[in-house]
Design goal:
623 residues, mainly alpha, five-stranded mixed beta sheet, 26 helices, 67% helix, 4% strand
Length: 623
């Protein structure tokens, strides 16, 4: 596995070097390399050639890294690799978190409802889900991250820890792009400030953390990376078009709800390009050219999403869970009473005005930070500051997003979930993370412009007002890096603590019982779970279907039935899986079949049930 991981990293490096060779930004190069590989695999998947696409992409990456290694060797450029302070920090903590994630299990509910199940299906079935299977039920969800993780799992080997590392690599590549927006990456204080702001997202990502495959945090990071791409390549129109289109494509293929952020990126792209017209003549010709560029980029940005919509429409006749469907939305609105909608709105507004929520504190922090920055720089130092403008933009963007979330609860979410505001911490964490990162970069650039030597080209080690300010600069850099490191170590410790706490969780028990069930099947399996809640909220069903890799797994806890009824229930299945001791089930099997059952896998026969070893069970599944 280690050698395969090294080869995978080299293939990724090959595509990253291709971006650099073509004069793309080094800060965007890693993310663009990931996106290019993912989109290539995606196109092959749509053409029913997923595995061919994976291996062609992998081999192409290895060939590229060999070519660029030889070229650099001939040009004697291998020694020219430069590392900044934030590069070293990124590598150290990237490795530490990766090692932590590598030994972390999947626990969160939605890993099994879709995100991990989708990757497992793609990896071992080798094609996109079709209408004949009932394992991947969120068939409307686009598969961008799943494509990259399937690519990783195919090369490195399927392992939950490696999937988590793969997701973290995408997140890290997106965060690294932000350093390209800074005016001067050599300024240790400014880069340390950005590092600190990046670690702040751990606090507001606490609802899901990094030890799962959910994309709520990733959407915000990709959105910021898209805005960064427009800014970084403002003087390279070709790369601006390409990088924006690629990131927006990937963003839209990550989750349909990312449409809002895709539109924000394209609006900023349009504004940035239209602003250049006034400096060029003739304006009418430049206006036509710029309009064509905006239209071309917008259309190109939606191509991956359009292909996915066409695929879903052609393959699936039924509406998927959480699908974009206006008729379904209208039907729900028609059937909900005004009182029902009012209750949901009241519950939502109560949450929004609760000062104890992370959302409220996060947005308050952003507003205070931007306002203080403007007051100090504009009012106190009488220098230019964009922080007040950004405060207005951030609040407007947040308000529109919040209205969209409320609309989702009222229009598209079942009442039982909507009235409890299911998942609201996750949904709102996206806009909080987005706002923190966006405002953070603006604040740091404002501070940089207000420094003693604002002209970057004229800076050197002596560009300080006096020795005292230089000492403050050095000490502030040190403390920011210390605080950032503490926050990252806290996140690592938090994940480790959770890993130690969940020894009795259903996914852990299932993984121990059937660790290598990779053959998709349609066996009828009864999963006996002693925890009522896991069954009532369908967690047992989804976990069972993921680990047993069957689309006919039923979780059950209630067995207050007669022996005859119990026998009828059992005979409806081919296998019974008992991951945790269930007292009532054990007594009934003893009474009905004279079989002593605690935990294990059992095969249903005409006369009862018989125990199976894991090896025997896997052998039968592979037949």
């Amino acid at each position: 596995m280690m050698m395969a991981a090294i080869l995978f990293a080299l293939a990724l490096l090959g595509f990253q070097q291709l971006v650099m060779f073509l004069k793309g930004s080094q800060y965007l190069s890693w993310l663009l390399a990931i996106i290019v590989q993912s989109l290539v695999v995606y196109i092959f998947a749509l053409a029913h050639q997923l595995r061919i696409g994976i291996w062609l992409t992998f081999i192409s990456g290895l060939m590229l890294v060999i070519i660029f290694f030889v070229v650099r060797l001939k040009q004697r450029q291998l020694h020219q690799i430069k590392l900044h302070l934030f590069d070293v920090w990124f590598m150290i903590f990237g490795i530490l978190i990766s090692l932590t994630l590598l030994k972390s299990p999947l626990i969160h509910y939605d890993n099994f409802t879709h995100w991990a199940t989708m990757v497992k299906y793609l990896t071992f079935v080798g094609e996109l889900p079709d209408a004949q299977q009932n394992l991947v039920t969120f068939t409307d969800y686009p598969p961008a991250t799943a494509m990259f993780l399937t690519y990783l799992a195919t090369i490195v080997g399927y392992h939950e820890g490696s999937l988590l590392v793969g997701q973290f690599v995408i997140i890290g590549a997106g965060l690294y792009a932000l350093f390209g927006v800074l005016r001067d990456q050599r300024r240790a204080l400014i880069t340390a400030g950005l590092v600190f702001m990046l670690t702040l997202i751990n606090i507001f990502n606490i609802a899901i953390r990094f030890n799962n495959l959910l994309v709520d945090c990733l959407i915000a990071i990709l959105a910021i990376a898209g805005i960064s791409a427009v800014y970084i390549h403002q003087n390279q129109r070709g790369w601006q078009i390409v990088s924006t289109s690629l990131i927006v494509n990937f963003l839209l293929l990550t989750k349909s709800s990312a449409m809002y952020f895709a539109i924000l990126i394209l609006i900023y792209f349009a504004i940035a390009n239209l602003a250049k017209i006034k400096n060029k003549a003739p304006k009418w010709r430049e206006g036509i050219k710029t309009t064509a560029v905006i239209i071309l980029t917008t259309v190109g940005s939606f191509m991956g999403w359009i292909l996915w919509r066409m695929h879903v429409a052609n393959v699936f006749t039924k509406v998927s869970k959480h699908a974009l469907n206006l008729q379904a939305y209208q039907s729900q609105v028609d059937h909900e009473s005004a009182n029902t909608q009012r209750l949901i709105v009241q519950k939502f507004m109560s949450y929004m005005t609760n000062m104890d929520t992370l959302f409220f504190r996060g947005i308050l922090l952003v507003n205070i930070a931007l306002l203080l920055t403007w007051l100090v720089i504009r009012v106190g130092l009488h220098k230019r500051s964009y922080s007040l403008i950004m405060l207005a933009i951030t609040d407007l963007v947040t308000a529109i997003y919040v209205i969209g979330v409320l609309r989702m609860y009222v229009v598209s979410m079942p009442y039982a979930e909507a009235i409890n505001l299911a998942g609201i911490d996750r949904y709102l964490s996206t806009i909080v993370i987005f706002s923190i990162l966006l405002s953070g970069v603006i604040i740091l650039n404002d501070i940089d412009r207000a420094s003693f030597q604002p002209i970057v080209a004229q800076r050197n080690s002596a560009s300080f007002a006096n020795l005292q300010t230089k000492q403050v600069y050095q000490e502030s850099t040190f403390f920011l890096l210390i605080f950032s490191s503490v926050l990252m170590l806290s996140e690592i410790n938090g994940i480790n603590f959770l890993n130690q706490k969940i020894n009795d969780a259903l996914p852990i028990k299932m993984q121990q019982m059937v660790p290598n069930q990779n053959t998709f099947n349609h066996k009828r399996i009864l999963l006996v779970d002693a925890k009522t809640q896991d069954v009532n909220n369908a967690y047992a069903n989804y976990v069972g279907r993921y680990y047993l890799f069957s689309d006919h797994v039923d979780g059950r806890e209630a067995f207050d039935v007669s022996s005859k009824q119990f026998q009828s229930i059992i005979q409806g299945y081919q296998y019974v899986v008992v991951p945790r001791y269930h007292q009532t089930f054990s007594k009934l099997t003893s009474k009905t079949y004279h079989e002593h059952v605690r935990t294990g896998i059992y095969k249903v026969t005409n006369n009862g049930i018989k125990p199976l070893s894991t090896a025997k069970y896997l052998a039968e599944m592979n037949q």
